[in-house]
UniProtKB/TrEMBL annotation:
The entry's keywords: Metal-binding
Organism annotation: Hymenobacter montanus
Entry keyword annotation includes Signal: no
Similarity section: Belongs to the DinB family.
Record carries keyword DNA damage: no
Top-level taxon of the source organism: Bacteria
Protein's recorded name: DinB family protein
Biological classification of the source: Bacteria, Pseudomonadati, Bacteroidota, Cytophagia, Cytophagales
């Protein structure tokens, strides 16, 4: 009987979502980086950078016990990329770091709690594997979905993520 570990399941899901995310990021038009579909929306370039920077955040879920948003010494993302090439280079680098951290992890480690704080206020406390899925993968998928709407509104073909999109043969 074949058994699959928590780490293997998360890694398989991560690989699938990273491939889909890269498809969307490859279409981000940096000549329209300031585009916002609504006054409350994040500009396109900043949203794309956020999707990429979340990968570094996910790595913390695997490697650390906690993250305090008020800690001035906590790791911060680099400057906002100014081109698609910079964006994709950072995506590839952060993806590899996250994959490596996950490959070096083990199931028991992924069941230990991770705590997200703002000073003394606990914003979230979950097992690392759950934090990675909920605040990591799901959070990224949410923002990737926003990016795909921006692409649609800019009349840029949207890639198929879970099957063909309306812009691909057989899509709907």
């Amino acid at each position: 009987m074949h058994t699959s570990s928590l780490q293997q399941n998360i890694l398989a899901e991560l690989d699938h979502e990273l491939a889909n995310t890269r498809k969307v990021l490859e279409r981000v038009p940096y000549d329209k980086a300031d585009y916002t579909p609504h006054p409350k929306s994040m500009p396109l370039g900043k949203l794309a950078a956020h999707v990429v920077n979340l990968l570094a955040f996910k790595t913390l879920f695997v490697q650390a016990d906690s993250r305090d948003f008020l800690d001035p010494n906590a790791p911060k993302p680099g400057p906002t990329p100014t081109s698609r090439e910079e964006l994709l280079a950072r995506f590839d680098q952060y993806s590899q770091t996250l994959r490596q951290a996950l490959q070096e992890s083990y199931d028991e480690q992924l069941t230990h709690n991770f705590q997200l704080r703002r000073g003394e206020q606990v914003l979230m406390e979950r097992p690392r594997g759950a934090a990675l899925r909920i605040m990591g993968l799901n959070h990224s998928i949410h923002h990737r979905g926003q990016l795909s709407v921006y692409l649609r509104l800019l009349d840029i073909p949207v890639p198929g993520l879970y099957g063909p999109s309306a812009d691909e043969p057989g899509g709907f």
